[in-house]
Amino acid sequence: MSEQALTYLNEHRDRLLEKLREFLSIPSVSTDSSHKDDINKAADFLVTYLQNIGFEEAMKQDTAGHPLVYAEYNGAGKDAPTVLFYGHYDVQPVDPINLWDSDPFQPEVRDGRLYARGSSDDKGQVFMHLAVFEAYMKTEGKLPVNVKVCIEGEEEIGSENLYEILNNKKDQFAADFAVISDSGMVAKNQPTILYGLKGFTGVEIEVTGPDHDLHSGIYGGAIRNPIMALGHILTSMKNEEEVVTVDGFYDGVEPLGDEERKLIEEVQGENYTEATGAPATASEKGYTAKEHTQGRPTLEVNGVFGGYQGEGTKTIIPSTATAKITCRLVPGQDPVRIQQLLEDHVKQVAPSGVTVDVKKEKLSAKAYKVEPTNPLITKAADSLTEAFGKETVYVRMGGSIPVVEWIEAIYKMPVVLLGFGTPEDRLHSPNESFPLDSFDKGMETLVHYWQKVND
Amino acid sequence: MSEQALTYLNEHRDRLLEKLREFLSIPSVSTDSSHKDDINKAADFLVTYLQNIGFEEAMKQDTAGHPLVYAEYNGAGKDAPTVLFYGHYDVQPVDPINLWDSDPFQPEVRDGRLYARGSSDDKGQVFMHLAVFEAYMKTEGKLPVNVKVCIEGEEEIGSENLYEILNNKKDQFAADFAVISDSGMVAKNQPTILYGLKGFTGVEIEVTGPDHDLHSGIYGGAIRNPIMALGHILTSMKNEEEVVTVDGFYDGVEPLGDEERKLIEEVQGENYTEATGAPATASEKGYTAKEHTQGRPTLEVNGVFGGYQGEGTKTIIPSTATAKITCRLVPGQDPVRIQQLLEDHVKQVAPSGVTVDVKKEKLSAKAYKVEPTNPLITKAADSLTEAFGKETVYVRMGGSIPVVEWIEAIYKMPVVLLGFGTPEDRLHSPNESFPLDSFDKGMETLVHYWQKVND
Question: What distance in Å separates residue B193's CA from the closest CA in chain A?
């Protein structure tokens, strides 16, 4: 029965790809308020698309922030399961723009990859779902499952308003299980089931010394330099063995058992130095880089700034220095508690002569893990294997998708992570791209999957 | 005889102040190449002014960078001494511009102070010299001393080309002594002789990890974070007791003897926490803030940057992190050796997983000290005391004026530092200003001084 849908996708492939390029060309950067119109444009694109393929009531649902795209399909009948499909249409900023080889919002195919901001994270993967819905609708006149579509515009800024809505409108989003395609495979064309994700939390540390920038000759030696003070604070949070030295940070963390270590070892990971260009790997003492990224918590400084950044020299002692920090958490760690530990630590180690302000990221999430033996998971694995012609592997990953944890916590339903990205996609970086192989085989996977979950 | 010049200055005070405002309104920011035209405009202003008051051959002298304003006056006769007057017409950048209460290039008088970029450093002080030359010329028809005027446009970017010229055209700049007004007094209306200045050197440290920004979820735990690596490097250079921990940094530094400590203690310094807004002072273990700023070397981070600096969160591991560092040196320290020590140190302590590039500032300078008993110095002190009606104090200061060291090294002539700035001037910061008291009494000082040095 799904043959027809597959044929449809094959025959309409060029047009669908063109449509995806149209979607990707909308610069829906959520972190930057100057892109507010583009955010709306991207949401409108989705609503129109959904309406055209038969989700008649598709609409933009207002939130306190960017609109949520919502649609329902109930044509599969009462006996068919209902799936909540989640994705996001917002994208990361593009800076540093000068490092892009082509315009991030003029999608370009090169060497079998589609280059554009959002091509992998997450517009490309969202679009694949819509195309598969279209294929079923146009060939079968119906979908094998009932669907609730929920595509938000604030994933890259913490999904703040989605959380409110999920919490307050439980009926609207209730379903039998959820499917999300906002992740990746361990290697190109290596079908992968993600059975665990890390949690997430963050703080911003601002160190203030003098109330204005000072001449370093006149005041050097009399007051504390805020950049140096920040250096001391950061250094006190993680040592050179990549061990987080914030008191209590590892409390409650499940140890990484031998079996899980073996599982991690068995899956072919990427070559980290090759993929990143870093001269060597660096991971927590006692763990390999693969073990650390998959199964151990991390603390990373995402940005730092203070004082003079221009050409040449400006001999000042700056007034302030700021660091943005995020942590990726594993099961057993509570993000709110971790934020508090970070704040307590910073306050405690801050040297004299400066004041320190710790701003806590509003939203955070616990880590997520699902049983790999759940039939919804095994059926996904089978669909992947069928489409990609290769055995599916099971992994945990270092990324965080807060919505996964929320759906699990609020609705107690399983979440299936069917991600088609690859390690070379350069998510959040210049030259983001998505392999056309993933585009094609991913859609084939979805065709199989909707069929299997209704068997 | 100098009475007439004083009367002239008094009678023409409003016009002279207006002329200074015209000079200050030219945004001659040397560090920013977009201000190239303004640099030329400021130089032209000086050339025209000098020509109008009788320095007929005043001219812009080409350099590899910004032009030097040069003029000679030989009318005092063969028996009169020749003074090399040095100043600079370039100014610091104005960022952060939003912290200025008035436009930095629309000079405004408020509460007895003239607010503008360059009002104190150094256009205001340069202009006072020109006004005093004018007063003598217009009343006496001549100056008491022969003068070589040398006003450069690259002081704020290291005086790179001046050094070449001073070295290559020794005849042109030869004189009996030099006078520079590019410094300050220990307090407003407290006449001060600066008998020592610090030397200066700097490095920029760039830490590179991955060759592009990475997703912190996917790669966190696998590679070294360049910001954290930079934090470890900075922290290893100065401890929380404000002691520089770079091997060999203090080698050869003259100890601060009891007598000099007493001299420093006796001079009323500024209240550092009040002047800076910092919550507490912080100085080298074993030294007071006053002792450290005046008599001990410093290492300051002037700027730091890496990764995401925008609103909200961007969950990346950045590719690079950079810190700009400058040191202020005391007699006994060689700036080139210090740069090498810094580079060696950074290379040695850099953690694995990153590469480190240390860029050495091209120009640096040794510290400077002059005998306080030199008659050129005591005459300056007497002139100050006369004009300000208060005993002159003798201090060393933490600032650096490379040209002072060069003049001493190349020409073996004494340099008299007749500075009229005050601690509240906010040099290099938003809301730079210069007290009108200093403007008036400073000019009076100069009238006395030119008379005294020819007695």
Answer: 15
B229-239: average pLDDT: 98
DSSP codes of every residue in B196-212: EE-EEEEEEEEEE-SSS
Domain positions in chain A: 2-197+367-453, 200-260+294-360
Express each pLDDT in B106-129 by its tens digit.
999 999 999 999 999 999 999 999
CATH fold of A2-197+367-453, please? Aminopeptidase (3.40.630)
Residue B1 has pLDDT above 60, yes or no: no
Q: Which of B97, B211, B264, B308 to mutate against chain A (most A CBs within 10 Å)?
A: B308
Residue A12 phi/psi, 5-degree rounding, is: -100, 15
For the residues B228-246, what does the mean pLDDT come to? 98
Q: Which of A113-122, A404-413, B242-251 has the lowest average pLDDT?
A: A404-413
Closest residue on chain A to B281 (Cα) = A223
- Give the residue carrying structure tokens 């599982």: A263
Q: Which two tokens stand for residue A237?
A: 């949070």
A310–B225 CB contact, under 8 Å? no
Nearest chain B residue to A326 by CA: give it. B315
Round to whole Å and give the CA distance between B320 and B342. 19
C-beta atoms of B303 and A308 within 8 A: yes
CA-based radius of gyration for chain A: 23
Mean pLDDT within A118-127: 98
3-state secondary structure of B99: helix
Q: Which of A91, A250, A253, A308 is the best residue to mutate to test the B interface, defined by the most B CB atoms within 10 Å of its own CB?
A: A308
Tens digits of per-residue pLDDT, B332-390? 999 999 999 999 999 999 999 999 999 998 878 889 888 888 999 999 999 999 999 99
How many residues are there in chain A?
A: 455
d(CA A321, CA A314): 16
Answer yes or no: do A280 and B211 touch at CB < 8 A: no
Instruction: Give CA–CA dist A19/B107, Å, rounded.
Output: 58
* Alpha helices by DSSP H, B280-401: 289-295, 335-349, 375-388
Contact flag A223-B281 (C-beta cutoff 8 Å): yes
In what side-by-side order are the strands of the sheet with B368-369? Answer: B368-369, B192-197, B393-396
- Phi–psi pair at A113, nearest 5 degrees: -125, 145
| Chain A residues close to B284, C-beta within 8 Å | 221
Our CA-based measurement puts residue B104 at a distance from the nearest CA of chain A, in whole angstroms, of: 16
- CA distance linking residue A155 with residue A110, whole number of Å: 28
Q: Provide the 10 A C-beta neighbour count for residue A368.
A: 25
Q: Can you name the residues that pair with A39 across neighbouring β-strands?
A: none
DSSP B97: G
Domain A200-260+294-360 has CATH 3.20.20.140: no
Name the residue of chain B whose CA is nearest to A197's CA. B217
The CATH architecture assigned to B199-257+285-360 reads: 2-Layer Sandwich (3.30)
Q: What is the mean pLDDT of residues B306-321?
A: 94
Q: Which of B241, B313, B363 to mutate against chain A (most A CBs within 10 Å)? A: B313
Nearest C-alpha of chain A: how many angstroms from B359? Answer: 11
Q: How far is B194 from chain A (nearest CA, A)?
A: 13
The per-residue pLDDT of chain B, averaged, comes to 94
Kindly identify which residue of chain A lies nearest to residue B232, measuring between CA atoms: A235
The pTM score is: 0.76
Tokens of A64: 């306190």
Nearest to B293 by CA among B442, B184, B434: B184
Mean pLDDT across the stretch B150-158?
93
Contact B300 A230 (CB under 8 A): no
Q: How far apart are CA B16 and CA B128, in angstroms?
A: 9
